[in-house]
Amino acid sequence: MMNHWIIAPVVLPAVMGAFTVLVLRNNISLGRIFSTAATALLLLVSVLLLAGATQNGPEVYFLGNWPAPFGIVLVLDRLSALMVALTAFLGLAVQLYAIGTGWDRRGRHFHALWQFQLMGICGAFLTGDAFNLFVFFEVLLIASYGLMIHAGGRDRLKAGVQYVAYNLVGSTLFLFALATIYSVTGTLNMADLAVKLPTLPEGDFALIRVAGVMLLMVFAIKGALVPLHFWLPATYANAPGPVSALFAVMTKVGAYAVIRCYTLFFPEDLTATGMLFADLLLPAAVLTLAVGAVGVLGAKDLGRLVAFGAVTSMGTLFVAVAQFTPEATAVALFYAVHSTLAAGAMFLVADLVLERRASGSLLTALPPLSQHGLLAACFMAVSIAVAGLPPLSGFLGKLMVLDATRGDDIALIWAAVLGSSLMMVVGLSRAGSVLFWKAHEAEGQSTEHAAQPLAFVAVFALLGGLVMLTLAAGPVMSWLAETAQQLHDPAAYIAANRLEAL
Question: What angle do CA 295, 246, 155 make, to 5 degrees?
Fold first, then answer.
C-alpha cells in the first residue's frame, strides 16, 4: 500500500508557510508557536520515514496517481530519508536559536520563509524526477534569498544579489541539461533514465556527455566546488547567523544530487560517459579543499573564517563522493552528516560571539564577552569538530575518507586532506586565541549581554548530535554501508517506480 506519509515533509512546511503569511504575519508569538510545532512535527515524521525506509526499502508516492514515468513521483529510500531527517533536526535546532536570539523579530516573514526553505530542501531530497529537482532548487533559491537579506543592510543585500546571480546561472545550465537529456531519452524520471541511458545508440553519446557535464556544473555551484564557489564566502559571512547555519545543509543538496544522479543514471559503467565525471570531480574537490583551508588560514574576520571552513568541509566530502565506490559513498554520507552538524554549530557560535562584540567581525582582541567561558568552550568544541580533530566524529570521518581513497591519486588526496586539516587547526587556533585568550589582556571593561539560554540549548543540541554520531559510529557506518550498496545497485529503486529493471 502506498505510504502517503512520504509527501508530508513537502506538504507540511508548504501549508505552514502559507498559513503563517496569510494569518500569523502580524503576531510573532503565534508565528513562533505554530512554526516551531510544524518543524518539530516534521522531525517526528522524518524519523518515522527513516525507520520505514530502513525496514521496507524504496517506496514511491505517485502524485495524482499517475504512473511513472508519465507522472511526478516522490521516492523514499534510505538516502532521501536520512537527508530529510538531518534537515529537520538542523532546522528545529536553528529555529530555536533564532527565537532565543530574537533574529526572527527582525523581519515580518522569517518563519514563513523558514518553512518554505524546509519545503524546498525536503522536496529536493525526495523527488524522483529530474525536472522536479529543478523546481525544488528554485523554491530553495527564492526562500533562501529572502532569508539571506533578512533584517537588511547594504553588505547583506550586495551579497544576496551576488548569491542570486550565481544561482540563476546554475538554473539556466540546469534547464539546458534537462532539455538535452529529454531530447535524447524522452523522459526525466530518474529511474526511467537509469533504464534507458544504457540502451542509447552511439550517435547520442556526445549529447549525453554534454548534458552530464552541465548537470555536474549545476551541482558544483550548489555544492560550492572550486572554481564555482565564489558565491559562498560572502553569502555565508553576511547572512544572519541562523540562516547561515541552515545553509549548512543546503550545500549538501549539491552533494546529494551528485550521489543520486551519478550512481543512478550516470554510473561509471555507463558506456556513453565512463569515468568522465569522476575525472572532473576529483580535481575540483582537491582544489576546494586547498582554497578553503587557505581561506581559513588567511581570514581576518570571523564570518569569512567560518564560511571558508564550510568550503573546506565540502571539499573533503566531494573527495569521497568522487571515488564512486560503495565504500567511499558510505564514508561520504557519514561525513555529510558530521559536517552539516559541525558547520551549523560553528555558524551559531560565531553569531553568538559577533552579537557580543562591538567592533564587528574583525579578529581583534577585545575585553572578555558576556558568558566568556561558555562561549570559549563552545568555540573550542566546534573548532575540534570542524578541523577533524579527535575525539569527535570529524576525526573518524577524515580517517575513513583517507582509507576509502587508496588508489592512483592517494598521494594527492592524502596531502590535500592532511594539509588542509593542519591549516584549519592553525587558523582556528589563532582565531580562538585572539577572541578568548588575548581578551583578558585587552584594555576596557567586559561587555554585558542577555544570557540567551535557548540559543545555547540549540548549540548544545548540535554538539550533542556530533557526540552521538561519534559514539554510534560503528552502527551508523554499518547502516550507511547498506545504504551505499542500495545506491550502487539501483534495481530496487527502479522496481519501486514500477519500471522494468535491466
Answer: 55
Site of grid cell 527565537: 99
**CB contact at 8 A, 17 and 115:** yes
Residue 333: alpha-carbon gap to chain centroid:
11
Cell of 203: 550517435
pLDDT at 95: 96
Q: Is the pLDDT of residue 442 over 80?
A: no
2: pLDDT strictly greater than 60: no
Residue with cell 577524515: 398
For residue 262, the Cα-to-chain-centroid distance in whole angstroms is: 18
Q: Is 407 exposed, middle or buried (CB count within 10 Å of its CB: 0-12, 13-18, 19+)?
A: exposed
User: Which of 424, 228, 429, 194 lies closest to 318, judged by CA?
Assistant: 228
Contact 466, 341 (CB under 8 A): yes
Count of beta carbons in the 10 Å neighbourhood of residue 40 = 15
CA distance 215 to 176: 9
How far, in Å, are 123, 356, 368, 438, 491 from residue 449 at the CA level? 39, 7, 11, 20, 57
pLDDT value at residue 39 = 97
DSSP element (H, E) containing 220? helix 205-222
The neighbour count for residue 149, using CB atoms within 10 Å, is: 22
Which residues contact residue 252 at a Cβ distance below 8 angstroms, ignoring those fewer than 6 apart? 83, 86, 223, 317, 336, 339, 340
Q: Let me know: does 194 contact 270? Beta carbons within 8 Å.
A: no
Confidence (pTM): 0.94
User: Per-residue confidence at 1, pLDDT binned at 50, 70, 90?
Assistant: very low
The number of residues making up the chain comes to 502
How many other CB atoms sit within 10 Å of the CB of residue 1? 4
**% of the chain with per-residue pLDDT over 70:** 95
Angle between helices 28-56 and 110-126 (to 10 degrees): 10
Please tell me the distance from the alpha carbon of residue 186 to that of residue 405, in angstroms, as a whole number: 37
Indicate the pLDDT class of residue 502, thresholds 50, 70 and 90. Answer: very low
Position 489 scores a pLDDT of 93
